[in-house]
Every structure is written in C-alpha cells, then in structure tokens.
Specification:
The chain is mainly alpha-helical. It has one domain (about 15-110): Fumarate Reductase Iron-sulfur Protein, Chain B, domain 2, CATH 1.10.1060. About 40% of the residues lie in helices and about 0% in strands. It contains 4 helices and no strands. It has helices at about 15-25, 50-65, 70-75, 95-105. The longest helix is centred in the middle third of the chain and has 14 residues, at about 50-65. It starts with 16 loop residues before the first helix and ends in a 13-residue tail after the last helix. Residues about 5-10 and about 115-119 have low confidence and may be disordered. The structure holds iron/sulfur cluster (2 copies). One iron/sulfur cluster binds near residues 50, 77, 79 and 93.
C-alpha cells in the first residue's frame, strides 16, 4: 500500500537562496518531524534532524557564514521525506536539502576544503 502525501506547496527552482530561505522560514518549529527522522538519533548535533536542518539553513543563508555543521547537516539528510508526512507546514526537507546541495556546489564551497563527514 502506498503512502499518502500532502500536496506539494511549491516547487523549488535550482539553487536560488531566496526561495530556499522563504521555504525554510515557513517552519513553525513544532518538532513533529523529529520523531520520524532516521538521522537525528545518530548525529552529534541537532542539525542531523529536520528542525535543526531548517535552523542551520536559515542561519547560513541569512548570515552567509558557512560552517562544517551546516555542510554535515545538509549532506547527512537521507532525502527520505519521512518528515514531510508529518509536517503541518508541508515543508519538503528533501527539496530544501537538494537545493542547499546545489547552492553549495554552485558556490564552490566543497572545493574550498570544507570537510563533509557522513556517519
Ligand atoms: S528527509 Fe532528511 S530531515 Fe526529513 S526525515 Fe528524511 S533524513 Fe530526516
Ligand atoms: S514538522 Fe515542519 S514545521 Fe514542524 S519543526 Fe519540522 S519542519 Fe518545522
């Protein structure tokens, strides 16, 4: 039996920082997503969960300060959409993380020596 997903609110187009920020800022920080995310329990910080990913993404896009914590958060997401099935704001983390990865790549961030760790 296939899962029923809420309707997709908006498509994200490429690595556009403003559209990523606007989508992330719809988060109401309810935390419902944290109970279903498979990575939050195995990571060393909250950025391994959906709410933490949203937080780190917003702080990066607003400040321009890119840290290893942000990169770990973006690349440790499994893009599984489990969080999307419980999110009242219908935020699609997998699309946000794909957009963030595209943005990192387009800015050459991964070529500048910032390490990507996976666990
Ligand atoms: S898409 Fe990413 S943030 Fe959402 S539940 Fe899966 S691993 Fe966690
Ligand atoms: S369920 Fe959605 S709105 Fe709630 S904290 Fe997670 S991403 Fe934000």
């Amino acid at each position: 039996m296939s899962a029923t997903y809420p309707s997709v609110r908006m498509p994200l187009r490429g690595p556009d920082p403003q559209s990523l920020l606007e989508e992330a800022e719809r988060c109401v920080y309810c935390g419902f997503c944290e109970s279903v995310c498979p990575t939050i329990r195995v990571g060393p910080h909250r950025g391994y969960g959906p709410r933490g990913r949203v937080n780190l993404l917003i702080s990066w896009l607003e400040s321009g300060a890119l840290s290893e914590e942000v990169i770990e958060s973006v690349y440790s997401c499994l893009l599984c959409d489990a969080c999307y099935t419980v999110c009242p704001a219908h935020i699609r983390l997998s699309e946000l993380m794909r957009g963030a990865r595209a943005l990192l790549t387009s800015r050459g961030a991964l070529d500048k020596g910032l390490a990507v760790r996976t666990r």
